[in-house]
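Morning run. Coffee first, then this:
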Amino acid sequence: MGKDENLIINGSGSYPGGRYDKISIRGEGTIVNDVECSVFHVYGTSEAVENVTAGSVKIVGEAEFKGNVEAGQTLVMGTMKVGSRAQLKKVKILGMLEVGERLSGDEATIKGSIAVNGDVEYESFDSSGGFEIKGLLTAETIKVSLRFGESRAEEIGGGKITVKRKKNSLLSFGKDAGFLTAKVIEGDDIYLENTKADIVRGKQVNIGPGCQIGLVEYTNDLAHDPSSTIKTKTQL
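And here it is:
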């Protein structure tokens, strides 16, 4: 796409879609049709009415995509809203991401927050921020550091799942605020802290401190911190 023209928006207005090399929005811009580009950068406020396909997306301001978004590299430092599906291969969230349907890709790093109405599927999912996932969170490797507030998913599935509370040095007094809630957590190798779940199912299960678990089903080994509660334990 090297010979496609750039779209630079410094003021405000509506612009057609199509193929571009670089789109840079520093003012307030609306793109009314499907758009395909190498680079999509938003420093101001933008709205894309239909679908967006981009090599890289960087949101420093506010961006709302009414349709689907497909991108190779995505960095969100501001606010990004996707009305339908988001396929973001490598995504880093320092601000906020909202997705109306499904979020998928290869590698997700969440330091801010995400809210997804459907499923989230990645190869690796690393969160030290917060998330609310209405569907299934699935990844080969899931790593969650709980710093503040409550992170929530309907179900969590993966190969290796590690959930740890992370003490905030600025808020060292009082109890740890970070907490994870899910109905079902299922994986091969599971380690949990500060987690509330109805069912935990895995080969190697280690229930660390601060957990409230209804049922643990395990095939190989179960370790259990005495400060946590497990109502029922079953070896399969």
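The chain has a mean pLDDT of 94. Good start to the day.
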